[in-house]
Amino acid sequence: MIYLVEDDSSIRELVVYTLNNSGMEARGFHTPSDFWQAMEQEIPQLIMLDIMLPEEDGLQILRKIRANRHWKAIPVMMLTAKGTEYDKVMGLDAGADDYVPKPFGMMELLARTRALLRRTGAQERPAEFTVGPLYVAPARHVVKVNGEDVSLTLKEFEVLKMLLENQDVVLSRDKLLNQVWGYSFDGESRTVDVHIRTLRQKLGPAGELIETVRGVGYKIGAQG
């Protein structure tokens, strides 16, 4: 996932559209507050920041990212109309990994995005997962345990996919609720527990891969 914070809607929509149509999942945010809310729910592989933004500027956002132990390693690319050498040095000194002045071409942006992901070791999420006896291909909505097909509801599948995309990370019930059911969901966290229980049952011998972390939430451990 790539996050773009850009208050110019035409640029934001074009960049997000281009990234999504080039095999890189992306989300755009008009304001820093929307971006910070998303950061609490999902950590992206790369962040693109404009400098001139409402609420707080891109350099302030960058400094906060670099000061947070959970986020400091995320690669950050600055996309900004402030293209003087001084502005570029300021951005790089603040911790930016790349600096692209506007206007920029979409082909160049894609090339520099891929280069930055390679350089920083950030990889796109795998097209499929194999953990012990469990095999999941999200794009094809395929789930197999020991080679046998497993039928899941949409919500069960989304919960499983999120756990696999965040292996070894404990996901709280609230985070799972927000990501799978959405912010408007007015149910309670027991909903997650019920789905985890049925998911374990349907996965049979692979159900034990889903670990309960008491008082926190659930995770699937990475298998070596």
Describe this structure in words.
There is one protein chain. The chain is α/β, with parallel strands linked by helices. 40% of the residues lie in helices and 20% in strands. The chain has 8 helices and 12 strands. The strands form 3 sheets. A 5-stranded parallel sheet has the order 2-1-3-4-5, with helices on both faces. A 4-stranded antiparallel sheet has the order 6-7-8-9, with helices on one face. Strands 10-12-11 form a 3-stranded antiparallel sheet. The longest helix has 15 residues. It is elongated. The mean pLDDT is 85.
Spans of at least 5 consecutive residues with low confidence? none
- Principal-axis shape: elongated
The SSE string, one letter per element, is: EHEHEHEHEHEEEEHEHHEE
Question: Describe the biggest sheet?
Answer: 5 strands, parallel
Q: Major sheet: order of its strands?
A: 2-1-3-4-5
Distance, first to last CA: 24 Å
> How many individual helices?
8
Radius of gyration from CA coordinates: 19 Å
Tell me the strand percentage band: 15-25%
* Beta strand count: 12
Helix content: 25-40%
Tell me the structural class: alpha/beta
Rounded mean pLDDT is 85
